[in-house]
Design goal:
With about 300 residues, this protein is of the alpha/beta class. Helix content is about 35%, strand content about 15%. The strands form two sheets. A seven-stranded mixed β-sheet has the order 2-3-4-1-5-6-8. A two-stranded parallel ribbon has the order 7-9. Strand 3 and strand 4 form a beta hairpin.
Length: about 300
Amino acid sequence: FGGRSPMFGVVGVKGSGKTVMLTVLSKELKTSVARRFDASIDDVGSSALMRKMARWRDQMDSGGQLPESTAEFNPAETVPAVLEWRYERKGVAGISRDEATVLSFYDTAGEDLKTLEGTRNQHYLAAADGLIVLLDPFGFRANRDRGLAMGIPETQLEIEPVNVLGSITTMLREEAGKGGRKKVDRPMAIVVSKIDAFFRDLPPEHPVRQPGSNRPLFDEAESRSVHDHIEALIHDWDGDDVLAHLRLNYERYRFFAASALGAEPEYRSERVNSRGVLPHRVAEPLLWLMSLRGFIPKAG
């Protein structure tokens, strides 16, 4: 794809909302993000994943079923969704230049992250330019009973967030040949998914509940504010082990909060809310990664 064309891994355990997030993100890129940056963002080719995402978008937009779980690792089917992003970047003194890149995304079965051996099979994670890691908020100890009461299967809450991060970290260290002292320099966007389920616990003016910026840049100050508030929430959810793991193992990481659906689904029947899909801050993790690469400007 060329030196400036990044590959990203979107990972999370079963039930964390990863496939839904990736499906909604692909649409957001081609609609709201394209409008925000006055860009052309289009599919490149047609992989099995892209065809599945198109079908899943149709069924979710009509208030139907959530996507089925991603199948476990199969090399023959591990083909990414690929998009091309082109736009005219406005510079100083009114000088503009054309920018273009090709983005590729992989979807990984949650079961593949249950064990270190399973995670080691995900070789593309070590080659990815950045990772978007989804953490299920109901996986934190303080929220587990709440999730079970809402109808989330107990099997989806067996793996605690710190164990998912631990497997990924070990694999990245092994692939890079890093010892225990050096931190991993791969940028990590850590996304607390399903955040809409916790809106009732937060005041309306809380930064996590506010929509993201619509300016054609990455708002660093806004993102840092969300990061700090998510850190505080994770602390309240008995997630200090997650905070310590990231702080001690990674050079660059950022917390995000997102809801692909914008309203809680019926967890027992796995059906989307009748209002349909109303994404909340879904694109922010990717835009942060793109700003680190210098592809989009940032401010604040």
